[in-house]
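Onboarding guide, step 5: your first structure request.
Type a short instruction followed by the sequence, for example:

Predict the 3D structure of this protein.
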Amino acid sequence: MTDTPGTTGAPSREAHRVRIEYCTQCRWLPRAAWLAQELLTTFETELTELALTPGTGGVFVVRVDGEVVWDRREQGFPEPTAVKRLVRDRVAPGKPLGHSEKPAE
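The system replies with structure tokens like these:
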């Protein structure tokens, strides 16, 4: 059996990619890395890639499959649970987020 690039020989699944672009001037790498860890832990079987992309000018943007789901300039800094909900809605609709998810008010 020959694997295609980026696969591990596991059954095929839809590829979902997350990209977190963060500002290096603002030193937001730790925040981006922490959010990346939260997403990779929550969606370990749903995500095929998570990239941290250095940027400048106060950027902190989360994209799922190329679509912006969170932009700090418009929404402020996200709580992990808020980003997890947005990612879940795109990569695993209906997946429970466990104790970290509170019902919407």
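Each response can be followed by summary notes, for example: Residues 1-12 have pLDDT under 50 and may be disordered.
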